[in-house]
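Lab notebook, bench 4. We co-purified these components, and the gel suggests they stay together. Before we commit to crystallization screens, I want a quick structural picture of the whole thing.
Request: model the full complex, all chains together.
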Amino acid sequence: MSEEQQPAPKLTGRQKRKLQEQDELKSIEEKSKQPENYVDTKFFDDLPISTKTRKGLKRSNFRQLTDIQRKAIPLALAKKDVLGAAKTGSGKTLSFLVPVLEILYRARWNVNDGLGALIISPTRELAVQIFEVLKKIGFEHSFSAGLIIGGKDFKVESERISRMNILVATPGRLLQHMDQSVGFDCDNLQALVLDEADRILDMGFQKTVNAIIDNLPKSRQTMLFSATQTRSVKDLARLSLHDPEYVAVHEKSEHSTPHNLTQHYIVCDLQKKLDILYSFIKTHLQNKTIVFLSSCKQTRFVFEAFCKLQPGVSLLHLHGKQKQTKRVEIFRKFTSTQHAVLFSTDIAARGLDFPAVDWVLQLDCPEDADTYIHRVGRTARFDAGGHGLLLLLPTEMEGMMEELKKKKVPIDEIKVRDSKQQSIQKQLQSYCFQDAEMKYLGQRAFVSYMRSVYLQRNKNIFKATELPTEEYAASLGLAGVPKIKFLSKAKAKETAVSRLLKEGDDEEEEEKEKSKEVRTKYDRMFQRKNQDILSEHYNKLVDFENDTVGNDDDDEDFMTIQRKDHDLESEPEEEMKELISENISKRQANMTKKHIAKKMTKGERIVFDEEGNPHQLYEMEDEADFLKAGDAKAQKEAYISEETKVMESADWEDKATAKQKRKEKKEKRKLREKQELEELRRERGEDMEEVVYTLGSGAEDSYDEQVSGSEASSSEEDEERETFKRKWREAQESSSESEDESPSGKKRVIETDEPVTLADQEALALKLLGA
Ligand SMILES: Nc1ncnc2c1ncn2[C@@H]1O[C@H](COP(=O)(O)OP(=O)(O)OP(=O)(O)O)[C@@H](O)[C@H]1O
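Here is the predicted assembly.
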């Protein structure tokens, strides 16, 4: 039999699958080169993607594409850099996860190829969520995937990280690995994704992100996604994007928030906020609500206080100062609960996809309209409905409304009927009175709220000095106002500035009045503002003889001497001679030179001839001498050109100095802003200590297992509680030791971070005495 006639060898099932896979690979590779063919694609099944990804999508019940997915996925599959902007809850996560899987699949990536895709998220919770979705839709693929958010043994993680193909990470811990994990290599990276890109690129992460990007190869594909997308050329330049495609789904739409979201705001006084919150919760017990507050301490206090009030619905709280395990536990609890209230800082503001949230209540004003949009976006996700309620102080109303209008946020005012409000101030007072820990939390909440308002950059909205501190403290149940230094300073500064401005205005008014009158030369002379100064100078001039060496008072003296510029006697020279003869020290000589300089005429240079006679610098030349140097015109031109050169060089130097000064000023301002922002973030608990969870190959080394492994670690709140108890015990011990010497009971005061008022101390003393 000839070779041609021989029957084809029988293929094993595995070989057949391999061949099919190769055919599929070729076909999707070709098809994905033409993204324009997929602009109207409705179903994932019709996209040029692998069967493996398709199966994963089906398993998670993702069949139809959302708008952003329809626009972004085909471009990303064609290996384009993408800037994706779409409303909250519109499905951005799949817009980058599907391409990530496909890009690596098409590159036939395997464990030995190292890191192929890197997804960066600003918070741990969001990273966990992205990782969960990746696990679901990527379950058919054989890539290894890891979650780098902190919390695990760095060494263990270091050993595993070199085997990861896809990493979902928060910036801090990722950089730590780049710096310290020997096996961590990203030279082959194919795709970089920044979720919540505007947040990752903002100043808070600037240094870290720049350092990360420096470690990545430039030839990668980059994808940026956010509901409030950055288009800052500078930011994008940092990422070296190649001809990026801007995919903005809501740019032309009338509003920037989901259409199925109703949004309202209430204007209320600061001291009324907690009453309104309580009344709201009591009337929405059958709902799932997220309440946003501006700092960790406040979140903690409101949570503890409301737990005591027992409104009749389960209460949870989430902030950056809790340990990771606790945060995950709360995150999961809130996800699975039907009716609950979650008090949270902005840690939950971005990207988190809690199902079926009915209400987002922003108890404290968000720092800007973008933060508002992200917070309110925790409800009305995908095609669900939802409600947003924003509480604004009268001082915040105008500025915030302006910002929201600019960002196309449709929001209307509603009024709360006083009769519907229930005051909880008395209960809070009694909690703070009975329970020192509550009072301590209240004080810290008070200070941290004030600080967060004070640190906000938009002073059009946030006016810390106008807040009713006494009423606010009372509304938290505190007997007195904790002392806050920064606020007193800010108030003093404001008073000084307004006084200066007022004086300036008064003077201006006075000037205007006077300018209306007809004034003679003598009037002007007597009205001169610096009359006193001049007369004083005149006196100094008279006292000149008594001036001592080294008495280099100030510029005014210098000006006085200037007035003596007519007598060009040899006075300076004589003084110099005297000094030389006295053989004074170098330092004294320097001082004396200053002194001499004071007495010299400013702007008049004198030259001495060989006999030591002083001459003016410029003196009349006779005509013959003048003509020796060429004709007048040529001399004039030469002179002009020389002077022009001098002036140009001086001009250039001036410009360079001015530029340098501007640069320094800008750098200083940036540094100050950055420090303020970092402080604000710390205040909100966003400076999360990075911890690690790693997944093994195939993403089956389950996250749950890792979590339960470190469950034993206590939360920071528990530690704080312990510290508080210790301090309490110490205070009690010290008070019993020193009972005799301290009848006022002052030594029994519990140590707190914030100052305690006298009334508080008395209350505490009574409590300690068992009264
Ligand atoms: N094609 C789809 N079909 C059905 N549900 C989808 C689809 N895409 C996304 N979803 C669901 O919509 C919800 C929101 O998606 P996702 O979290 O990706 O939104 P997002 O645009 O990233 O929101 P945010 O701006 O808040 O981060 C999720 O519950 C997700 O499961």
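The mean pLDDT is 77. Worth comparing against the SEC data before the next meeting. The longest strand covers residues 261-267.
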